[in-house]
Amino acid sequence: MHARELIIEAHPEVRRKDSHALIRCIEECYDCVLACLSCADACTAEPAVGELRQCIRVDMDCADVCFATGALASRRTGSNEKILLQMLDVCASACEVCAEECERHGKRHEHCRLCAESCRRCRAACRLAMQDLGGESGAVQTN
């Protein structure tokens, strides 16, 4: 089941008030979690695992941030837009860092190339969701 069915069709407070950008972002966040965890696991199976230590770390950090962001974005009862916008910004940043690290290894390791692609899609989806929610496309103001 996808976010659209869970959020729009089942949630009593959200019906017909959906943010397509936010729903896409939730789905990209969870896809990125899977890509990052799979990449980290595949990195541990590589013969030169020592050279991939930073990649593994960044993969796991990104997966954690994407999971938390997807969870916060999925909560539609009430409102906590300030925190959500900040999480979307952090998620976009984590995805950028992970994509850059994975791209360093992408020519030798297909799992890194695929992870970088997923991170780029998630970063873009986070930025679009921020714009849709009225936040900036860059850093979120915390004042």
Describe the 3D structure.
The protein is mainly α. Helix 2 runs antiparallel to helix 5 (110-132), helix 3 runs antiparallel to helix 4 (81-105) and helix 4 runs antiparallel to helix 5 (110-132). It has helices at 3-9, 20-45, 53-74, 81-105, 110-132. It has one domain: Substrate Binding Domain Of Dnak, Chain:A, Domain 2. 72% of the residues lie in helices and 0% in strands. It is elongated, with a radius of gyration of 16 Å. It is built from 5 helices and no strands.
How helix-rich are the residues, as a percent range? over 70%
Are there runs of 5+ residues with pLDDT below 50, and where?
A: 138-143
Count of DSSP-assigned helices: 5
Overall geometry: elongated
Average pLDDT number: 87
Strand fraction band?
under 5%
The biggest sheet, with number of strands, parallel, antiparallel or mixed sense and barrel status, is: none
Order of SSEs, N→C?
HHHHH
List keywords for this structure.
5 helices, mainly alpha, 143 residues, Substrate Binding Domain Of Dnak, Chain:A, Domain 2, 72% helix, elongated, disordered C terminus
Task: Describe what is shown at a glance.
By secondary structure, this protein is mainly alpha-helical. It is built from five helices and no strands.
